[in-house]
Write a structure and sequence with these properties.
The chain is an all-alpha fold. Helix content is about 70%, strand content about 0%. The longest helix is centred in the N-terminal third of the chain and has 26 residues, at about 5-30.
Length: about 100
């Protein structure tokens, strides 16, 4: 068995955290409006959606071996969060203007 360098471990850890963050950012935006809360929730939401999408697609017959299955799971779980967030923001209507109206004196 080959030994793994510390740089390889750091690279893989960064790649996994990046995948979890990207996959969960859309879902975290659905649940939290505060930027700090979204940042903290993104990896958690990413892990949850990747697991749930992986189980669901595997039950539907998608093989999770090779590169096609994991790519479809990652794209559908991450893209689903951004789609839901977009639809909820669109449904909420226009945002109020930032103008400050002076009261008559």
């Amino acid at each position: 068995m080959e030994s793994v360098s510390l740089d390889d471990i750091r690279l893989v850890a960064f790649a996994v955290l990046s995948l979890l963050f990207v996959a969960g950012s859309g879902w975290a935006g659905v649940f939290a409006r505060d930027a700090v809360a979204r940042l903290a929730l993104a990896p958690l939401c990413g892990l949850a959606t990747l697991v749930l999408a992986g189980i669901a697609l595997e039950r539907l017959g998608m093989p999770l071996t090779g590169s096609v299955g994991p790519t479809v799971v990652s794209a559908s779980s991450g893209g689903g969060g951004y789609l839901v967030r977009f639809l909820l923001e669109r449904r909420a209507g226009p945002k109020p203007s930032n103008e400050v109206h002076d009261e008559p004196r």
